Protein: UspA domain-containing protein
Organism: Linum tenue
Amino acid sequence: MSSTSNLGCAVVAVDGSEESMYALRWALDNVHLRSPPADSSELPGSFVVVHVQSPPSIAAGLNPGAIPFGGPIDLEVPAFAAAIEAHQKRITQAILDHALEICRQKKVVTVKSQVVIGDPKDKICEVVESLNADLLVMGSRDFGAIKRMFLGSVSNYCANHAQCPVIIIKGKGKEEETSS
C-alpha cells in the first residue's frame, strides 16, 4: 500500500461491540480514500461497513445434527425460526444504524453497508475479496488465551487470510475510558 490517500475501498467490519465501533471511528478519522479531481473518470473511494449475521439456526442454538432416541434429523419449528430471524434482523439493523450514525457524525458521505450471513471469519474475507478491497479495518476484543483457544479470533484469522492489508484496532482500555 503505497499511499493511504489512494484507497478505492476500505472495509470496516462491525459486530455491534464497542471495539468494532471504535475501529469504525478510527478508520473514519485516519483512513484517507481516493478523491479524484472533478474532471477525472476515476471514482472516489468509499467505506463499506460490513456486518456478519449468524444463521438463524446457530443463533437459536439449534444443532442440525441427529437428535437421540429416534428424533428427526432436522427439527425446526417454523414460527420459532421466523421469530429468531426477525429478531436477528432487528439487531442487525440497529448495529448498522449505529454505524451509519457514526459515519454521519464524522461527515463521511461515501459509505455503503453490507450484511452477509455465515461465519464471520470466512464471510469477512469473502466480502473483502469480492469488493477487491484495498484495506480491512476491524476491532479486537482482546480475548485471553483460553477464550481465544475455544472461540477463535476473527481478527487474527482475517489478518492471516484476507486478500488485502488488515489493520486491527485495539479498543481503549477501561482506565482510558473512565479518565476521558
Remarks:
- The domain at 9-60+77-179 is CATH 3.40.50.620 (Rossmann fold).
- The chain is about 45% helix and 15% strand.
- The longest helix spans residues 78-105.
- Strands lie at 9-13, 46-53, 111-117, 135-140, 166-170.
